[in-house]
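dumping this here so i dont lose it
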């Protein structure tokens, strides 16, 4: 998968050179390219923002540098299919495991994280003629810009690419893969500071262990995430 990241803080994405995603890049599974948005300005101050037309708080990102950066990304696009442009914004569709799964099948993702009050709306309109544009959020809280959301999205998506995670079993078993939260896990020692590991886990009875874990997952989901639990029962009724 090819990924282009365009930002006024491309150093933000250095974290993607660590751990599994760093390894996937070294292995050639992932080609992540960072671009400094200010490199696509022409003025002495490398200006990327200006005040909102018709007033309002803060500043808006100017369209011209974004278009020049995206032109360059398109010119270097080697993929057969239309690239996908993801614009992180609190007013976008929320990233879910289903959305991550869908994006993980694409050849070329381009991320356009804004700062300030966001990017001039015409950029997404213009880009829609060349990209599949998706405005996406990682959740209902406030961030200072889209970069932190991009890190989350890239990690959620790329770990689903075959080969990025060594142990494929850990993909199938984890939270949200089947709409339930994970059961509690333990390791040695069997007793620690007066607390024992639940006896069933030491029984060697694999059916009983699986049933206990399922109960724990279901109880946790009902207690902590009634919304998730309800959408599961929706699945049974429809
Ligand atoms: C996001 C101006 O750019 C922003 C600002 C906040 C923000 C995003 C982009 S994406 N919050 C989220 O996913 O919650």
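and the seq i came up w/
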């Amino acid at each position: 998968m090819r990924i282009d990241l365009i930002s006024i803080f491309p150093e933000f994405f250095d974290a993607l050179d660590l751990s599994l995603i760093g390894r996937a890049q070294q292995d050639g599974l992932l080609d992540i390219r960072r671009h400094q948005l200010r490199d696509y300005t022409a003025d002495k101050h490398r200006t990327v923002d200006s005040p909102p037309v018709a007033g309002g708080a803060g500043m808006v990102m100017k369209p011209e540098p974004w278009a020049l950066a995206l032109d360059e990304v398109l010119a270097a696009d080697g993929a057969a299919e239309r690239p996908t442009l993801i614009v992180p914004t609190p007013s976008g569709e929320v990233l879910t495991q289903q959305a991550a799964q869908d994006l993980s099948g694409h050849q070329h993702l381009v991320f356009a994280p804004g700062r300030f009050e966001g990017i001039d709306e015409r950029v997404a309109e213009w880009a829609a003629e060349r990209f599949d544009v998706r405005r996406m959020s990682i959740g209902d809280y406030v961030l200072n810009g889209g970069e932190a959301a991009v890190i989350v999205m890239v990690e959620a998506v790329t770990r689903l690419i075959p080969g990025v995670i060594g142990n494929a079993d850990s993909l199938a078993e984890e939270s949200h893969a089947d709409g339930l939260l994970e059961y509690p896990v333990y390791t040695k020692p069997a007793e620690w500071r007066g607390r024992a590991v639940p006896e069933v886990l030491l029984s060697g009875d694999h059916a009983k262990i699986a049933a206990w874990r399922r109960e724990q997952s279901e109880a946790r989901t009902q207690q902590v995430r009634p919304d998730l639990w309800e959408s599961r029962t929706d699945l049974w009724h429809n």
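The CA atoms of residues 7 and 30 lie 19 Å apart.
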